[in-house]
Amino acid sequence: MSQKVVVALGGNAILQPKQEATYENQLQNVQKSSEIIARIVKNGHTVIVTHGNGPQVGNILRQNEEAKDVVPPFPLDVCSAESQGFIGYMMEQTLKNELRKLGLDNPVVSLLTETEVSKDDPAFEDPSKPIGVFFSEEEAKELAEEKNWVVKEDAGRGWRRVVASPMPKSILGSDIIKKLTDDRVIVIAAGGGGIPVVKNEDGTLTGIEAVIDKDRSGFRLAEEVKSDVFMILTDVQNVYVNYGKPDQKALTHVTLEEAKRYVEDGQFSAGSMGPKMEAAIKFAEQGGRAIICSLDQADLAMEGKAGTHITK
Ligand SMILES: Nc1ncnc2c1ncn2[C@@H]1O[C@H](COP(=O)(O)OP(=O)(O)O)[C@@H](O)[C@H]1O
Ligand SMILES: NC(=O)OP(=O)(O)O
């Protein structure tokens, strides 16, 4: 049965933590992701793609800061837009090429998307979103001192710079995204969580410096385009209970009640699986099917043969 699916690609699908952030490395990874997404389209589903930008937006911000004596630096929301633009470009091009190989002619378009947040969001007082590259604790603390950064440990993987990450209230233009998908267009949207903007009292919009979590914005997008499935692709085949322990157990099909119980038990790290489970649970609460799985099993998971599925 044909279904509408919002696919959220994790940071690993664009750049693995140990890889150098060259354009070539990122293009090669994105090409692999596109190969898999094309298979989902081939199986008859309607796909909307969204993606992370943590490493990329951090690097663009740093490029701006390091070159500030030569070229005036841009604010973080503009860096977000830049990262959305270049990742969207890689995805659009590789997806068109992969669809063509499978004999498909669906149009593909990547849309620069703004996401509305609240200027009063408490996240502005407590930066939590890791961006850019990983450092040792010592290096990170030195950089924090020297450059006035906030740095934090990132889910056991090293230390990173962190910035504010407000909750997404709505994805601007999701009505247009929905119309395009109804017309067979494969849309890449709300990359990097979307460009954070606030609505002023007179209805105008202004950019605000932050990076939105793409699992949270992916949920909003899936909700607003009335998707049947919200699929979060990452680097583990399943969500596990007792993850990393000798008795770890893969979750395949879980009900909302079970999922919430595991969250209460503290089974999912705040900086990694936590936001994914939070987003998946919200989507399942509205009656949709949420899937968390590895990128290479995405097409199998869509057919119910891999990954962790959460339903009401
Ligand atoms: N209970 C769990 N089950 C599976 N993975 C978990 C769990 N808790 C933490 N993780 C970690 O979550 C990581 C995926 O999150 P993250 O690296 O933020 O994803 P991405 O960058 O792909 O969006 C996995 O690599 C794994 O190390
Ligand atoms: N914006 C965002 O959530 O990016 P990552 O998935 O790369 O952290």
Automatic annotation (TrEMBL):
Residues 4-292 form the Aspartate/glutamate/uridylate kinase domain. It catalyses: hydrogencarbonate + NH4(+) + ATP = carbamoyl phosphate + ADP + H2O + H(+). One of its GO terms (biological process) is L-arginine deiminase pathway. Pathway: Metabolic intermediate metabolism; carbamoyl phosphate degradation; CO(2) and NH(3) from carbamoyl phosphate: step 1/1. Gene3D superfamilies: Acetylglutamate kinase-like (3.40.1160.10). Signal peptide: none annotated. GO terms for molecular function: carbamate kinase activity. InterPro entries: AceGlu_kinase-like_sf, Asp/Glu/Uridylate_kinase, Carb_kinase. Belongs to the carbamate kinase family. This is Carbamate kinase. The keyword Heme does not apply. The keyword Ribosomal protein does not apply. GO terms for cellular component: cytosol. It holds the Pfam family AA_kinase. Keywords: Arginine metabolism, Kinase, Transferase.
